[in-house]
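REQUEST
  id: r-88c1
  op: predict_structure
  target: FAD-dependent monooxygenase
  payload:
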Amino acid sequence: MTNTNILISGASIAGTATAYWLRRHGYTVTVVERAPAIREGGYKVDMRGAALEVIERMGLLEAARARSTDMRIATHYDAKGRAVATMDADLFGGRMGDDVEIMRGDLNELLYDLTREDVEYIFDDSITGIAEDGTVTFERSESRTFDLVIGADGAHSNTRRIAFGEESQYARDLGYYVSICTVPNTLGLDREEAVHAAPGRTVNVYSTRQDTSAKALFMWSSEPLAYDHRDTAGQKELVARAMAGTDWEVPALLDAMRGAKDFYFDSISQIHMDRWSNGRVVLVGDAGYCASPASGQGTSVALVGAYVLAGELAAGGGLDGYEREMRAFVDANQALAPANVKGMVIGSRAALWFQLKMIKLLPHLPGRDRMIDRIAGAIHRAATAITLKNYPE
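RESPONSE
  id: r-88c1
  status: 200
  body:
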């Protein structure tokens, strides 16, 4: 498939990383992105295990470390604003050893800068159809023919809908919702996370290194909600209703949320598919196997998927080889989410009391190392549940 003409839909982490590896293996690559430019900002994401090896092979590890969030502590507050428990930020985030936490926009900028010279990017456009012969139609551009189309356009993938059918066939709702936006740093946070939890609801405010603003994250358990994906104002009202009656700083945060320009809202769901390719179309990252934010591994899985897909195409394993190499790794990382989310959003006051008590006692417990392994070890094992091949270049 040398010099094969490949189209990637989506210029976020999975798309830009796949573009890099395909170009490195000699393919001709075009990326189409619905947004008018590379997306900036976003929330913080982790890179662990095999994903760090991928980033290192790209020559970006030191640059990524230089942009790390440098988070220090996470403090839990009660309804009256009193600090009730504090823990190390890495332990709070399930990080061990060399794991790197970075803002999503910073990572995407590094990947884009690595590819912009020799990858064709088409912004403010999207795919409308894919024919069996590889002819692709677009909303704005003239139709073109490609040998392979890669869907890297997220959990709500347009490419997947066109090639595989409606999202409802593949989405598994875990029973929670999440919303994230930028807010003023009125709490004066400096590389800190401030957390308040109530039964079925959690609010986390954090500010990373060299950031004068803060991010507010709202997460709650819920039956499936009916809403318009394009109606941001309506989604903000859903968040406000879900958090109504929650004390601490939550009323002020909700007021700030209503004016936020970078508001994000979605269900915490996963994508499960029996196969990630169909004819000339293949999926990578969240489009094919979203693990959800609750896994803590979405970015890492996308980076590994990009490396393996491009490598298998170059080495002759093709799309079947990609499936074989990635399936167990994806399964291990998707399995993290159901248990993780129950630890993020606690269902009862008694369970909340117990969790905070354990956080306070953790530094003094004789079985401290076993407790830490219980928190972070499962994520580390999933993050390393693949041995990366050295693909020929």
